[in-house]
Amino acid sequence: MNLERHLRARREEGRKLLVPYVTGGLGSAWLDVVRAVADAGADAIEIGIPFSDPVMDGRIIQEASRRAIEIGATPANIINDLAKVDVGVPLVVMTYYNPVQHFGHERFAASLTASGIDGAIVPDLPLDELVGPSGDGGKAAASWAQAADAAGVETVLLAALTTPEDRLAAICARSRGFVYGVSLLGVTGERAKLSDGALGMGRRLKAATDKPILLGVGLSTPEQAAEAASVADGVIVGSALVRRLLEGGGPEQAGALVAAFRRGLDG
Which of 32, 51, 78, 83 could disulfide-link 24, Cβ–Cβ 3.0 to 4.6 Å? Predict the structure, then answer.
């Protein structure tokens, strides 16, 4: 399934986009959680591949990654397990560059395609490493972008509040699937209110590109999601969902939370 085409189609229907984040391998029922959030109204689903040094993530997702690794989660078995899931919406993995490099670019991209995974987010692989100093893919990591494109895997890039306008335009041009606007300066985690920079981030990205724009990091309630989506095409919800899973919630609780966000965005 083509991620960008799917999100554009949903957007053209007048729908605000909702992408929940689920930590892969977190408990024996994690695939049922993926199915539940799809049934509750997700437009795509982000699957976190646990990593020992998740530099973008705060306490909640760090703890979820630690628990998943302790019970045996690996990039290979998470990717393989996702082949068992047919949820009717695109799947996007979120991982760090170390596992991608360890796998090998072509092998990692091919494994995603074989399991029906449509996109990848690699937050510690910046634009310069993707395109090379002259825009020709000259750096070593550029082969990830080439391997991903060749395999049909859409590499989603992130934009920060501090990103200058020229770089923002370049990120939007190279991003595939959607552009991930980071709504605050800091790591993932729940916040009491929407950050001061979130609305400005959404407006800047919407002015820079027609690609789907999703805001994420720190969006904790349906009300915050609706406010963020007023200047963007939708939102990514991670820590609020993962916290409930860490507290013992399962597919039913995950589905109920995503349904609440869905109602908030639709309202």
Answer: 78
- In the structure encoding, which two tokens stand for residue 84, read together? 């068992």
Between β-strands 119-121 and 91-94, what pairing exists: parallel, antiparallel or unpaired?
parallel
d(CA 39, CA 37): 5
Assessment of whether the complete model's pTM goes beyond 0.90: yes
Q: Check whether 185 has a pLDDT greater than 60.
A: no
* φ and ψ of 170, to 5 deg: -70, -40
Question: At residue 199, what are phi and psi to the nearest 5 degrees?
Answer: -65, -40
* Catalytic (active-site) positions: 46, 57
Spatial CB neighbours of 246, under 8 Å, sequence gap ≥ 6: 26, 60, 63, 64, 67
* Averaged pLDDT, 212-235: 93
Please list the residues that pair with 235 across neighbouring strands.
18, 215
Give the pair of three-digit tokens for residue 216.
């994420």
User: Token pair of 254, please?
Assistant: 């995950």
Determine the Cα–Cα distance for residues 95 and 256; give it in Å rounded to an integer: 26
Dihedral sign (CA 133, 135, 136, 137):
positive
